[in-house]
Design goal:
Blueprint (H helix, E strand, L loop, with lengths): L2 E5 L2 E4 L4 E8 L7 E7 L6 E7 L4 E4 L7 E6 L4 E6 L8 E8 L14 E2 L3 E6 L1
Parallel strand pairs: 2-11
Antiparallel strand pairs: 1-3, 3-8, 4-5, 4-9, 5-6, 7-8, 9-10, 9-11
Length: 125
């Protein structure tokens, strides 16, 4: 059984930083594609970042490039999202995802089979 559990969300002022964590069980993050997505009420789930270790590929959404960094800890089977210089428009529920993705599908919601329950990030102005 695959289980993804996010943590690290919270309330932060604009310009601040947060680090989200995703603990994976039932799936080895070094063998799967892992990603972060976010969603606000009434909007579609948006791609944030993805890591496909076996292909040596990392992708970022345009709105977070240069501010967010995705990384993985294979020993602990964890995935992280370091978020710096946060902006109010980064406010959303952030989801960790895993799946047997390929490079061309890393940014696609539909490519991921497994999802966490989400963690709320709120950035105040």
């Amino acid at each position: 059984q695959v289980n993804l559990v996010e943590s690290g969300g919270g309330l932060v002022q604009a310009g601040g930083s947060l680090r989200l964590s995703c603990e994976a069980s039932g799936v080895t993050v070094s063998r799967y594609g892992v990603g972060w997505f976010r969603q606000t009420p009434g909007k579609e789930r948006e791609f944030v970042a993805a890591l496909l270790r076996r292909a040596g590929s990392i992708r970022y959404g345009d709105s977070v490039k240069g501010r967010f960094t995705i990384s993985g800890d294979t020993a602990e089977n964890m995935v992280y999202l370091q978020m710096n210089n946060l902006k109010p428009e980064d406010t959303a529920v952030y989801y960790c995802a895993a799946g047997r993705v390929i490079v061309s599908s890393m940014t696609s919601v539909s490519a991921y089979n497994y999802w966490g329950q989400g963690t709320q990030v709120t950035v105040s102005s």
